[in-house]
Amino acid sequence: MxxxxxxxxxxxxxxxxxxxxxxxxxxxxxxxxxxxxxAQHREMLDQVLDFFDISADxxxxxxxxxxxxYTLTANIITGMKPVLEAFQPDYVFVHGDTTTTxxxxxxxxxxxxxxxxxxxxxxxxxxxxxxPEEINRxxxxxxxxxxxxxxxxxxxxxxxxxxxEATVLVTGNTVIDALYHSVERVIQEPSTLIQGISxxxxxxxxxxxxxxxxxxxxxGFIRICEALKAIAIDNKDRFIVYPVHxxxxxxxxxxxxxxNIENIxxxxxxxxxxxxxxxxxxxxxxxxxxxxQEEAPSLGKPVLVMRDTTERPEAVEAGTVVLVGTDxxxxxxxxxxxxxxTERFEKMSKLHNPYGDGKACERIVxxxxxxxxxxxxxxxxx
Length: 382
What we know:
The chain is an alpha/beta fold. The protein has two domains: about 1-170 and about 360-370, Glycogen Phosphorylase B (Rossmann fold), CATH 3.40.50.2000; about 190-350, Glycogen Phosphorylase B (Rossmann fold), CATH 3.40.50. It has helices at about 10-25, 45-50, 70-85, 100-110, 135-145, 150-160, 175-190, 190-200, 220-235, 250-260, 270-280, 290-295, 315-320, 330-340, 340-350, 360-370; strands spanning about 1-10, 30-35, 60, 90-95, 115-120, 145-150, 170, 205-210, 240-245, 265, 285, 305, 320-325. Strands 3-2-1-4-5-6-7 form a seven-stranded parallel beta sheet, with helices on both faces. Helix 9 packs parallel to helix 14 (about 330-340).
C-alpha cells in the first residue's frame, strides 16, 4: 500500500485538494491517505474542510497575528519534520504556489519522499508579480518529482525549464472537479447567510468583487475602491457584493471608501459553498483571484482581472477573462461595457472553459496507481 501525504494551508489550496483527497480515499486498498494542514489561513481553511467533510491527521496550526514570510517559511519546514518522520510517506502532494507549497516541498524533499505538484507549471516569468507566489511555484517545480499541469501551456512552461516530459501530466484543474461537486448542492441547500443575502438582492443584477493580492496593497487597492465607488454610483439599480479579505491592508481602504454606499454590500469572507452560490448568482465578477479565473467560466460568468499579469494566459486567450489591472478608468470602462454591451456579454459567457472537464483528480489517481503497477477502474479519461 502506498502512503500519500497531502499538505496545504490556505483556503484555495483546500478547495483544490479536497476532491483529489476524496478521489484517493475511494481506493483504500491501494492508498493510505493522510492530511497535514499548516493552517497558514485558519478560519477560512476550516470552512472548506467542514464542507467537504475532511479532517486533518496533522495540524501545525501556524497562523499568527501579523505573521510574516520569514517566520512562516521556517515554521512550516521545522513543523513538517516530525510529521514526515512519523508517517514516512512515499508521495507528498503540494498544491499551487503558497508559502506552504514551497516550504512543504522543501521539507518533503529532505525526508526522501517523492514530491507531487498539483497545479504545476503556472508562470508569469516575473518574480515580483505575483509576489511571493511566482518564486514559490518555481522553487516547487525544481524540487518536485511529478508535475500535474492544468493545461498544455503549463506543461510547455515546465518542459522549457528542462523538466522531463515523462514526469508531467496534463490533467485539467482540480478546482473544476470541486465546482461540479458543489454547485448543485449549494443551490438546493442555501445557508442562512445566503437566504438573507438573496432576500436583500431581490431581482437586481450583481457585480461580485474579490480582492486580496499582496501586489495590489496600498495605492492599487485605493484605485480599485475608487473605481467600484464610481460604478456603484452610476448603477443604482445594481448591487456590488464584496466579501472583504481579513487582511487589514485590504480592510482599511475598502471600509474607508466603500462603507457607506447604499448599493455596495461589504460582507465577511464567505464560506466556500456560499461563494459558489454568489458566483452563480452574479452577472459579472471583478477579481484578482486565480481560482475565480478558473471557476467562473464554468458558470458562464465573464471575469475582469485586477492584475497586470496572469499565470493563467489560457483564460485570456480563450476570452473568458480580461486583464484590467488596478487602473481606475480601465476598471470602470470595462465593467460598464460588459453591463451594457449585450453581444459582448453573451459571447464571453458562452466561451469554453480552458481549465478542464471535472476529471483532473481521476487522472492523477490513475497516474500514481500506474507508477505503482496498479490499475483502477477509470473510464472516459481521454
